[in-house]
């Protein structure tokens, strides 16, 4: 089920938490929502799930506006809110039963759905405890289980791996990826490797505005300035190698990074690659090229460039 966000705006008093944003999410896509603290991620997610009202603009779920009185969007959405509010006095199973009933799961199917969620979210060992007796990570697992209990077509997950241990993080990321093959998933996170591990596309929001929208590869390509290569060239005098690299017409600047290890870093002139020239130079001079690695722009650097202001 596709989601379309059109000119969405939300203010709190004089402050625009979300400022006229537009984006789509398609079925079978996992969208990673990134942004610094206070950027507007949770506010956007709350509007998509109907938790708070829309001030301006529209949200369409499966083509139907949320404001359409006939839109029964809530039954298609599973939501894990930011602070994962749970009823602390309730045992896990009772709570999931309550959520399933609330979400309209057929009575005869509730027990099976609960069993499935307990397995999927790794709750088996703790399933007889009350929610208030659970550790932070296990509470997060209960939050995920309630979000998925009615097998919704859309999942909106606000920082889903917060508080989970490294083993569970890997399992939950895999689960999200698998779910994302058929469902529409939006997740917010501050963990950049998480986006690379789980998401098909990244949306970066800063101060209520979308500042980037694309796959990790597209964002890298857009951010990538000139080609930067790391080289190891052996069997030659280091100073001569450095001088020769700097003399190549595709090279803007060559630097010696580590003298003992014969490591150099080369930045090419804009729109040009120096790989072939470097290779030919080494052949001509009978130097041995034992390493040539393009240095990629890190997602952290892209994020910082777009959001530090
Ligand atoms: N109920 C509220 N009343 C007033 N201001 C609010 C309210 N909720 C959010 N805001 C403000 O709106 C802005 C966006 O907040 P939001 O929670 O959407 O950010 P976020 O990107 O989810 O941040 P974080 O990563 O810290 O969770 C912030 O400046 C926040 O202070």
TrEMBL record:
<dbReference type="Pfam" id="PF00005">
    <property type="entry name" value="ABC_tran"/>
</dbReference>
<keyword id="KW-0067">ATP-binding</keyword>
<dbReference type="InterPro" id="IPR003439">
    <property type="entry name" value="ABC_transporter-like_ATP-bd"/>
</dbReference>
<dbReference type="GO" id="GO:0005524">
    <property type="term" value="F:ATP binding"/>
</dbReference>
<keyword id="KW-0547">Nucleotide-binding</keyword>
<protein>
    <submittedName>
        <fullName>ABC-2 type transport system ATP-binding protein</fullName>
    </submittedName>
</protein>
<keyword id="KW-0813">Transport</keyword>
<dbReference type="InterPro" id="IPR027417">
    <property type="entry name" value="P-loop_NTPase"/>
</dbReference>
<comment type="similarity">
    <text>Belongs to the ABC transporter superfamily.</text>
</comment>
<dbReference type="InterPro" id="IPR003593">
    <property type="entry name" value="AAA+_ATPase"/>
</dbReference>
<feature type="domain" description="ABC transporter">
    <location>
        <begin position="3"/>
        <end position="232"/>
    </location>
</feature>
